[in-house]
Write a structure and sequence with these properties.
By secondary structure, the protein is mainly α. It has one domain. The protein contains eight helices and no strands. The two termini are 26 Å apart.
Protein backbone atom coordinates (compact mmCIF):
# COMPACT_ATOMS: atom_id res chain seq x y z
CA UNK A 1 0.00 0.00 0.00
CA UNK A 2 1.38 3.40 -0.98
CA UNK A 3 1.16 6.67 0.85
CA UNK A 4 -1.36 7.85 -1.76
CA UNK A 5 -3.51 4.76 -1.16
CA UNK A 6 -3.60 5.48 2.58
CA UNK A 7 -4.25 9.18 1.96
CA UNK A 8 -7.15 8.38 -0.38
CA UNK A 9 -8.62 5.91 2.11
CA UNK A 10 -8.50 8.55 4.87
CA UNK A 11 -10.19 11.14 2.65
CA UNK A 12 -12.92 8.70 1.69
CA UNK A 13 -13.55 7.40 5.21
CA UNK A 14 -13.69 10.78 6.94
CA UNK A 15 -15.31 12.89 4.20
CA UNK A 16 -18.73 13.05 5.82
CA UNK A 17 -17.72 13.71 9.43
CA UNK A 18 -19.36 17.00 10.47
CA UNK A 19 -17.24 19.85 11.75
CA UNK A 20 -18.00 20.57 15.40
CA UNK A 21 -19.37 23.94 16.48
CA UNK A 22 -16.70 26.32 17.84
CA UNK A 23 -17.90 25.85 21.41
CA UNK A 24 -17.73 22.05 21.00
CA UNK A 25 -14.09 21.75 19.93
CA UNK A 26 -12.47 21.69 23.38
CA UNK A 27 -13.66 20.39 26.73
CA UNK A 28 -11.38 22.91 28.46
CA UNK A 29 -11.14 26.57 27.55
CA UNK A 30 -8.04 27.50 29.54
CA UNK A 31 -5.17 29.55 28.14
CA UNK A 32 -3.19 26.35 27.48
CA UNK A 33 -5.96 24.76 25.35
CA UNK A 34 -7.30 27.72 23.38
CA UNK A 35 -4.37 27.89 20.90
CA UNK A 36 -5.35 24.43 19.65
CA UNK A 37 -8.88 25.58 18.88
CA UNK A 38 -7.66 28.84 17.36
CA UNK A 39 -5.16 27.05 15.08
CA UNK A 40 -7.52 24.33 13.86
CA UNK A 41 -10.99 25.89 13.81
CA UNK A 42 -10.49 28.09 10.72
CA UNK A 43 -9.76 24.99 8.63
CA UNK A 44 -11.48 21.85 7.49
CA UNK A 45 -9.65 18.75 8.74
CA UNK A 46 -7.89 18.26 5.41
CA UNK A 47 -6.62 21.85 5.21
CA UNK A 48 -4.98 22.37 8.62
CA UNK A 49 -1.42 23.52 7.86
CA UNK A 50 1.32 21.02 8.69
CA UNK A 51 3.00 23.63 10.89
CA UNK A 52 -0.16 23.92 13.01
CA UNK A 53 -0.40 20.15 13.41
CA UNK A 54 3.28 20.01 14.33
CA UNK A 55 2.84 22.71 16.98
CA UNK A 56 -0.18 20.86 18.41
CA UNK A 57 1.41 17.42 18.02
CA UNK A 58 0.57 16.16 21.50
CA UNK A 59 -2.85 17.74 21.88
CA UNK A 60 -5.17 15.27 20.17
CA UNK A 61 -6.45 14.34 23.62
CA UNK A 62 -7.66 17.91 24.29
CA UNK A 63 -10.46 17.69 21.72
CA UNK A 64 -14.02 16.81 22.65
CA UNK A 65 -15.15 13.43 21.24
CA UNK A 66 -16.82 15.10 18.24
CA UNK A 67 -13.76 17.27 17.52
CA UNK A 68 -11.50 14.23 17.99
CA UNK A 69 -13.55 12.41 15.36
CA UNK A 70 -13.37 15.38 13.02
CA UNK A 71 -9.66 16.22 13.42
CA UNK A 72 -8.26 12.69 13.79
CA UNK A 73 -7.68 12.41 10.02
CA UNK A 74 -5.59 15.59 10.21
CA UNK A 75 -3.21 13.76 12.53
CA UNK A 76 -3.33 10.58 10.45
CA UNK A 77 -2.44 12.49 7.29
CA UNK A 78 0.45 14.24 9.02
CA UNK A 79 1.63 10.87 10.34
CA UNK A 80 1.95 9.42 6.85
CA UNK A 81 3.73 12.55 5.63
CA UNK A 82 6.30 12.34 8.43
CA UNK A 83 6.27 8.75 9.72
CA UNK A 84 9.19 9.24 12.09
CA UNK A 85 7.99 12.59 13.37
CA UNK A 86 6.53 13.69 16.66
CA UNK A 87 2.97 13.94 15.35
CA UNK A 88 3.05 10.28 14.35
CA UNK A 89 4.50 9.19 17.69
CA UNK A 90 2.06 11.22 19.79
CA UNK A 91 -0.88 10.13 17.62
CA UNK A 92 0.09 6.49 18.03
CA UNK A 93 0.40 6.88 21.80
CA UNK A 94 -3.00 8.56 21.95
CA UNK A 95 -4.55 5.75 19.90
CA UNK A 96 -2.93 3.11 22.08
CA UNK A 97 -5.55 3.51 24.81
CA UNK A 98 -8.52 1.42 23.74
CA UNK A 99 -9.86 0.64 27.20
CA UNK A 100 -10.56 3.87 29.06
CA UNK A 101 -14.05 5.35 29.23
CA UNK A 102 -12.93 8.45 27.32
CA UNK A 103 -11.39 6.36 24.58
CA UNK A 104 -14.52 4.26 24.22
CA UNK A 105 -16.54 7.47 23.78
CA UNK A 106 -14.17 8.79 21.13
CA UNK A 107 -13.60 5.53 19.28
CA UNK A 108 -17.25 4.47 19.31
CA UNK A 109 -17.89 7.27 16.80
CA UNK A 110 -15.50 5.69 14.30
CA UNK A 111 -16.95 3.66 11.46
CA UNK A 112 -15.43 0.36 10.40
CA UNK A 113 -13.76 2.16 7.46
CA UNK A 114 -12.34 4.80 9.79
CA UNK A 115 -10.94 2.13 12.12
CA UNK A 116 -9.37 0.46 9.08
CA UNK A 117 -7.78 3.80 8.15
CA UNK A 118 -6.08 3.95 11.53
CA UNK A 119 -4.69 0.46 10.94
CA UNK A 120 -3.68 1.40 7.37
CA UNK A 121 -1.89 4.50 8.64
CA UNK A 122 0.15 2.55 11.16
CA UNK A 123 0.80 -0.24 8.65
CA UNK A 124 2.20 2.34 6.22
CA UNK A 125 4.26 3.96 9.00
CA UNK A 126 5.69 0.56 9.92
CA UNK A 127 6.64 -0.06 6.29
CA UNK A 128 8.77 3.09 6.08
CA UNK A 129 9.83 3.76 9.70
CA UNK A 130 9.58 0.57 11.77
CA UNK A 131 9.05 1.06 15.49
CA UNK A 132 8.30 -1.60 18.12
CA UNK A 133 5.78 0.50 20.02
CA UNK A 134 3.88 1.46 16.89
CA UNK A 135 3.94 -2.19 15.82
CA UNK A 136 2.14 -3.10 19.05
CA UNK A 137 -0.42 -0.33 18.54
CA UNK A 138 -0.88 -1.42 14.91
CA UNK A 139 -1.67 -4.96 16.08
CA UNK A 140 -4.48 -3.64 18.31
CA UNK A 141 -6.01 -1.58 15.51
CA UNK A 142 -5.68 -4.34 12.92
CA UNK A 143 -7.55 -6.66 15.26
CA UNK A 144 -10.20 -4.01 15.88
CA UNK A 145 -10.46 -3.21 12.15
CA UNK A 146 -11.24 -6.86 11.43
CA UNK A 147 -14.24 -6.84 13.74
CA UNK A 148 -17.52 -5.02 13.60
CA UNK A 149 -17.69 -4.64 17.35
CA UNK A 150 -17.70 -1.31 19.08
CA UNK A 151 -14.61 -0.22 20.91
Amino acid sequence: MTKDDVRNAIFKAFAEVPKPAPEAVLACHCAHCLPLRDEFLPYSWDKVPAESVDRQRSHLSLFTPSAFHYYLPTYLLRSIEDPGGDVCIFTAYRLNDLDSEGARDEYSRLSADQRRCIALTFRYVQSVAPDEEIAAILAKWEKLAQTNRDV
